[in-house]
Design goal:
By secondary structure, the chain is α/β, with parallel strands linked by helices. It contains 13 helices and ten strands. The protein has helices at residues 3-30, 45-56, 67-76, 93-98, 171-183, 192-202, 214-218, 229-238, 268-278, 281-289, 302-305, 311-314, 322-339; strands at residues 35-36, 85-89, 102-103, 125-137, 162-163, 224-228, 243-246, 252-262, 293-294, 317-319. Strands 1, 2, 3, 4, 5, 6, 7, 8, 9 and 10 form a ten-stranded mixed β-sheet that branches. Helix 5 (171-183) crosses helix 13. It starts with a helix and ends with a helix.
């Protein structure tokens, strides 16, 4: 007599469990944010993504786009956005804003960011910066001397050993063009010095990847890469690789990296939480421990700073003018495509 009731109870209980699991799964699925251009091997994003998951309960899948690819994707997806936040080289900050793919958000700490390192309307803001130079795997040089200047890279002894990211899409590639151009006597308006350099470098059969190439330097596949100090220090001190960082004797630039909230992103609330986190004391300290210059310099620990080259070396590194660089971006791409590539 009680069996039908027990069956009904069992069925009801099973349905309740299924419903609960469904709700839990749905809630869990919502706790995510999509960040374009957050590659784990670049700038120690891997540690940041783990911290965001641990502290905020938000999962952020790794994404290996570069700045140019990220903006192209955001524009293509404008009617139905996929990403919630984006991380970009500073050269891409204003173009992303002007393309209408960002929406204003001023995270906690925004007021403390220097005016030239953020969009006054709140569309983007700097989280850290790096100094461009030579990321060198000393062991992979085969006994050749460590290059000390941009022009050293043109020497025949480094044939097939020099790499740089593709300037037609990667921010670091475009910054490299301008850093070399300014160091060799050019200006933001006149790129002749850089184009001449890259045409000469082409004779040395350079390696020109489109994506971040940290692992290829660590392995020795690319002995010399035009890249940032934070990658070289990470190789030297964290991964114990035979890498060194060189600030070329002709000079170089300091370049900021920025983030912004994607307009109409599907997980906007989580995106805002993520942007708050990257300016937090904890995150800024983590950036410093990954050998980047936090936008809030007080969070660069003495221990981390002690592993940087001396300040006398960094005196040759000057802040880049983001607006002038952005204005030159199309010319950099066009001239490289038409005269070098």
């Amino acid at each position: 007599m009680q069996l039908p009731s027990l069956k009904r109870y069992a069925v009801a209980a099973a349905l309740a469990v299924v419903a609960a699991v469904g709700l839990t799964t749905a809630a869990h699925a919502q706790q995510r944010a999509i960040c374009y251009n957050c590659p784990p091997e670049w700038a120690d994003w891997g540690s940041q993504l783990k911290a965001i998951n641990s502290r905020l309960g938000i999962q952020v899948p790794p994404d290996n786009k570069n700045s140019g690819q990220s903006i192209a994707a955001l524009i293509a997806e404008k009617a139905n956005p996929v990403a919630d936040v984006v991380y970009l080289g500073g050269i891409a900050a204003d173009p992303a804003r002007d393309a209408g793919v960002l929406t204003p958000y001023k995270p906690k700490g925004w007021d403390q960011i220097p005016a030239d390192l953020k969009d006054p309307g709140g569309n983007w803001f700097t989280i850290h910066s790096g100094t461009l130079g030579l990321f060198v795997n000393v062991a992979a040089l085969g006994g050749k001397p460590v290059p000390q200047s941009w022009t050293d890279l043109l020497k025949p002894e480094y044939k097939g050993m020099v790499g740089y990211l593709d300037p037609t899409s990667a921010a670091v590639g475009q910054v490299g063009v301008m850093a070399i151009n300014l160091a060799l006597g050019g200006s933001y308006e006149n790129l002749d010095a850089a184009i001449k350099f890259y045409k000469e470098l082409a004779k040395n059969q350079p390696i020109v990847p489109k994506q971040t190439s940290y692992a290829r330097v660590i392995s020795g596949e690319i002995p010399i890469l035009i890249d940032y100090d934070f990658n070289a220090y990470r190789g030297q001190y964290t991964d114990k690789a035979p890498t060194r960082f060189v600030i070329p004797k002709e000079g170089t630039v300091v370049f900021p990296y920025v983030m912004g909230l994607v307009k109409d992103g599907p997980n906007a609330a989580n995106g805002r939480k993520m942007l708050d986190f990257v300016l937090s004391d904890e995150s800024q300290t983590m950036w410093g421990n990954a050998y980047l210059r936090p936008v809030f310099p007080q969070y660069l620990s003495a221990e981390a700073k002690a592993r940087f080259l001396p300040d006398s070396e960094y005196a040759r590194a000057k802040p880049i003018d983001l607006k002038k660089l952005a204005a030159a971006q199309a010319k950099i791409v066009d001239r490289y495509k038409n005269e070098v590539q």
